[in-house]
Amino acid sequence: MATSIYDVDLPDWRLKEILDVANEWTICNGVSIKSGGEGVEARKAVSAPYSLFPSVVPASILQQAKSSMVHFNRLMHKVALDHDFLEESLKNVIKADDFMENLWNIYLKVRDAGVKQPYHLGLFRNDFMMNCLNNVGPGELVSADQLELKQIEFNAISSSFGGLSEQLGHLHRLTLRMCGKQFDSDQIPENRSATGLAQGLAAAWDLYGNPKAVLLYLISSDERNVIDQRWLEFKMYNTHPQIRVLRRTLAELSDNGILQGDGRLFLGNDEVAVVYMRDGYTAENYPTLKEWDGRLKMELSTAIKCPSIQYQLVGSKKIQQELARPGALEKFISDPAIVQSIRSTFADLYSLDLGEEGDIAVGKALAAPDKFVLKPQREGGGHNLYSEAITNFFTTYSNSKEREGYILMQRIFPWQQKNYLVKAGVPFVLSNVVSEVGIYGVYLGSEAEEKQNYECGHMLRTKISGTDEGGIVAGFAVLDTPFLVS
Q: Quick one: pLDDT at residue 1?
């Protein structure tokens, strides 16, 4: 199995020509982010970080990930509605992590007040890596049976880059053709991630039942990834041009949101049908009590939340670890074949709760820190600990409740390939890279009813080999496209 650029040998001047075309293609076609500068510069769009060519994914690996998504969607919905499982799983985390404690307290307030909206909307992304079972060098031939699909995390809030990923395959078809690479059309599969996610938002808006109500995007005040968010909005207008979309921060929701006695949420004269959160996934998003007030206000309302507080809790790393325990999946899934298909993607996961089980996990980590990742209950990249940082953490907190805010995970060693990454601060050279596969899914349902459940596309996130973190906006990785081989 060769990489998609294995037999490409172009002079520098031709690569530069292709790069110039690709950079301007991304701007013309909305594969872009805000610059992140100051003042007027902050409003300018620049190319999102991307790979010049697609990276190889075995077709069987991508199919395995895609076919599992409807089962993961339903599983996470069921877990989110199981109070006893959430409480038992998170009881020690919320003692060690103030952010998780605040989320949990909002969840309890919603329960005590009586749930005003029985339906939940999930725009999920399930992230996997291709773990390499043998020592294979960058660009070397590898067969699908030398790779195994392993889940990295399940994103339940602000599952980003569905918008840009739908466009990127068109760019990679162009760059491969420009360098003379022959390929079948289905080797870069059609990707309708933005379209599928937008359909989920529209379905929730329809379900709410008020044609005059608005869809609220909750965003950060300095949002760079606005183009990705807008793509979902644009796709939604193809079928629902009548939907009005408002963009507000949690602080603005606190200041201007009005919660009626019957639970309806208003912004001025506009009733809110759906709240789509692209912010609020980490502690830094709540700098004051005002942001927490805005979050509680929306959770107490009749608006359909994406995600609800339960869905955000179920996306925590601790739930991922608890579901990997023997017998845990069987509480929610009766079909043994589905249980096995999901469990086969789990990496080795270890609790760090105080006690014998956690002590054993700490001992494993200290004995071989390079074989593990230490994960807090956060999304968005830039939070995990590796290697020496693991040793330093346990040297300080080996017998402290602080460790209960983390889980320990087997480190995945993905197959290395070669590609050119187009990203500020990274030399434009043929580099050793590794990739992560994300699968998008939509779930809309209540405890009694499943309205929508489908898989709706994919993303590929690629980074320089040896880079620990993988966030794109956080600055670690680039957008990519799978090039399928059998």
A: 44
φ and ψ of 131, to 5 deg? -75, 125
Q: Answer whether 0.85 is exceeded by the pTM.
A: yes
Determine if residue 16 is labeled as part of a ligand binding site: no
Q: What is the pLDDT of residue 10?
A: 87
Active site residues: 125, 153, 155, 160, 317, 375, 379-380, 461
Q: How many of the other CB atoms lie within 10 Å of CB of 116?
A: 16
Report which residue type is found at 348: D
Q: For residue 345, give every residue at least 6 positions away whose Cβ sits within 8 Å of its Cβ, in sequence order, or none.
A: 64, 65, 68, 128, 149, 150, 151
Is 189 annotated among the ligand-binding residues? no
Q: Are strands 257-259 and 265-267 parallel, antiparallel or unpaired?
A: antiparallel
> Within a 13 Å sphere around the CA of 192, how many CA atoms are in the beta-carbon half?
11
State the number of CA atoms in the 13 A half-sphere of 362 facing the CB. 22
Task: Give residue 115's pLDDT.
Answer: 87
For the chain, 486 residues long, the average pLDDT of each consecutive 10-residue run is 65 95 96 85 88 95 97 98 98 95 98 95 97 68 78 95 97 95 93 98 98 97 93 97 98 97 97 97 95 98 98 96 97 98 96 95 94 87 86 92 93 92 89 95 98 98 80 76 94
Is 286 assigned to a binding site?
Answer: no
The predicted structure's pLDDT at residue 466: 79
Q: What percent of the chain has pLDDT over 70?
A: 94
